[in-house]
Amino acid sequence: MKSCPNPLSKGLIAVAVIAFYSVSLFGATTPSYIVTNDDNVTANTATFYTIGLGGKLIKKIAVKTGGTGLSTGYFASARVNLLHNTTQSCVYVSDAGTNDIAAINETTLKRVGTFKASHGDDGKLAGIGLASNQHYLYAAFTSSNTIGTYQILPGCKLKFLKDVSAAGKNDASAAAGMAIHGHLLVVAYGDGSIQSFNISHGVPVSNGDEQNSTGFNTNLRPTAVDISKDGHYAIFGDVPVKAHYTTIEVSDISSGKLKPTIVYGGYDGSLGTGMNSSNIELSPDETLIYVSNNQGGTVTAVFFDKTTGVVSAGCVSSVLKGFNATWFYGGGVSLENNASGTGGVVYLAESGNGSASGIGILSVKSNGTTCTLTEAKASPASDVKSLGLLSIGSYPPRSF
Question: Which of 68, 192, 328, 370 would be 216's cystine partner, CB 3.0–4.6 Å?
Fold first, then answer.
């Protein structure tokens, strides 16, 4: 069985969401944004929200991607990706229904084009996940079990280069979560297996380290991926084969390859009793890992030691407003501020499962040993363009 929420029914999972916290290329402050991949099956859009006081979201514009979405898929597939460097600021949105990637210029909020991969690359099964560095964009196609490589060109345009096979070792699952650090691309397949690739020349080359995680032995399945700032640790969020609580696995990747993972949490509830851990986000100061409890309507924050890689219990929010009434599944988490500290306000994609979705808004407080997550009065912000909101991010993106 596929481990990231297998393509369940269409309202179940959807929408790569991306948070946009913006600074201009010349140093002047510009509006802060949250951006969504609305994953609309008839005419997809990316909705931009400005960030106001207390993290309140105010809709600014919905940009047509020129393609169609899927309105279902893996929780961990990040269907929006952000690029910010000294020359350009870009938003990339995957259209799984039409198997293309839309490119949006963040400065003008205009779409500059849609870009196909090869004829064999197909993401209609469970979406198209995205990851990038400064030069290349990587797209995980879930039907064809391939990762396509695009070169990032001036003006945010893309040039497709090549695809490579990428499948889990247990049931040939497609890549779900992906993360990049330097020349390393780390992938979680959601069937219990993980793998890394060398991307020093652009197109991924396997490091020959595909392996089952330690958690696989107890029916835990890594699906989400993040990487520490110094590239020492790959951090995985797990999904359940049977009911389990917040679970994080950590692999030492300082050698340039994955080592066996260490499991934290799981069935004992030692990291909290939030259900499912399919989306994670490391805070800018690397003290907290934010976890979307996809099937429980909560967000968990666990403490992370960036020196040792050890994970310890933190705090769990109350069940967010409207869960199991107006929305049914939590998607990705993202942060108001990717530059420093614990990231300010935390945002959660809330999948409407056939009705309008929203974005949960939570404040976080932490003293390094204890923390709290509290839903804001302005939560949730409505996303009427989407029937299933999943993954999120912030602009400018985190520096690592």
Answer: 192
